[in-house]
Amino acid sequence: MRLLKEVDRMTLRIGEIHYTNIMPMFFHLPKTALLQEGFQFQSSTPAQLNQGMADGTVDVGGISSFEYARNPDKYLLLPDLGVSTDGEVGSILLFSKVPISQLSNRKVALTSSSATSVHLLKLLLERNQGVHNEYTVMDPDVKTMLADCDAALLIGDDAIAAAWSGTAEYQYDLGAWWKEWTGLPMTYAVFAVRKEAAEKYPDSLSRLWEAFNESRDTAAGESYEQLIEWALREKGGTVSFWSAYFSRLIHRLDPYYLSGLKQYCRFLYEDRWIQQYPAFSFWNRSGAGIYSKVDRL
Questions:
Q1: Mind listing the pLDDT tens digit for each residue in 212-230?
Q2: DSSP the chain
Q3: Could you read off the pLDDT of 242-260 as tens digits, one per residue?
Q4: Which PANTHER family match (predicted)?
Q5: What's the CATH number of domain 6-84+187-292, 2.130.10.10, 3.50.50.60, 3.40.190.10, 3.40.50.720?
């Protein structure tokens, strides 16, 4: 791994989310060395990270696909990094008192922790099922949400814990639902950098990008063994659950998984959730600026 030049030492601010679905990119980072080199880590929820990236208090991180779609001119995508599935995800779940076919005109509680999943659910309900609801944003506690509403959307570790609790009679996995509807994978988060940070700190960004890739590859290379041990201690569950969970997650952004992201963004644009269809501009680690994967609507 390439070390930074002395002149390039700086305070690149990295948004760090402690959800299990993104942990492969962070678990094996040489964090002590990175801190010594001037990098800063800011712990946050997905929603907090999205806001920090949007307002410039965070430079780089795994932001929601919706945040990227909403503000594409602010960011460059980091190649080959993301959080996707080709079907079931296991941690983006709708819990309901009634079947989807009976959910129309009922109250749906939306987690305050997410952006991608909230809009994914609206697309699935409205476009795929023709169901229209009253939505309310609530803190991510399934019992409280279902006390006030007929269905509740949860993501990440909150969704996993709620699924284990067996609180709701009906449970829908949004990754599986999206795959069944579109035939495409779904990308929930992308790794992005603010354009001014990429321009100012190219060597530092290269160092960090390499470290993210190495952490992911190390985790996958050991079949997520250390991550599973960590998840058992911190979250509970079983070895078989976490092994299956990590194996389903794809932490790359190749053309196939980019196709799912593009379809998601087309729907957002057509339904006027975003003002423009993104150009999908990627940071070019060779130092030649950026390259774009612009896709026509």
A1: 999 999 999 999 999 999 9
A2: -PPPPGGG----EEEE---GGGGGGTTT--HHHHHHTT-EEEE--HHHHHHHHHHTS--EEEEEHHHHHHSGGGEEEEEEEEEEESS--SSEEEEESS-GGG-TTSEEEEETT-SHHHHHHHHIIIIIS----EEEEE-S-HHHHHHHSSEEEEEHHHHHHHHHHT--SEEEEHHHHHHHHHSS-EEEEEEEEEHHHHHH-HHHHHHHHHHHHHHHHHHHHTTTHHHHHHHHHHH---HHHHHHHHHH-B----HHHHHHHHHHHHHHHHTTSSSS----EEE-TTSS-EEE-----
A3: 999 999 999 999 999 999 9
A4: CHORISMATE DEHYDRATASE (PTHR37690)
A5: 3.40.190.10
